[in-house]
Amino acid sequence: MRCPRCFQEVPVDATQCPKCKLATPKVQQSGVSTGITGKYAPAQVRTKTPAQKTAKLAPAKATSGLPLARWQLVAITSGILVVFGLLGYGISEYWFWSATPPTTELGALHLVERARASEGGTVGQVLTDYIAKLAQEKKIDQVDGWRVECQDTKCRVTYTIKLTGQDPQSAVWEVDLAAQTVSPQNGWAIDLTK
Questions:
Q1: Which of 2, 100, 111, 175 sits in a 20 to 30 Å window from 189, CA-based?
Q2: CA dist., res. 119 & res. 190, Å (int)
């Protein structure tokens, strides 16, 4: 056998290394103290007191809370925050879209903007995308935007833009607030509305 400290050959029946005097496993097993400390010191035998022995037999105390790892706590907390965020967003969207508008003009405008578009989505989204595309291509001079005129529950909603070198172009819708209906009145409005 070789000494783990100095790698000197050690006889099997020796109690210590002849070169560095490190205790052999034979001495460590018998519990003889060699006075060596540190990394190569023999293992210390620990005896339990009678109180420690009876404490082991006693039932374990219940710990409060769940024994979760840190990543599990982060995942659960993140999940809860996402759920509450989505719930809050859903409630605010429901409130925005289902609440009655403060004026008849705003109600008519909301009906037109939320009307189904022929290209998918809503009329408001399609118009926004169309204007953004024209602006990138630098083909637009002016955007007058929305205009609403109402008499009782009947409204006329127009959206007007002016392209470069052309006359203003308008889309016109008739809105019946009582029936909640939107009717396109000219070619561009018919092309936009489903």
A1: 100
A2: 12
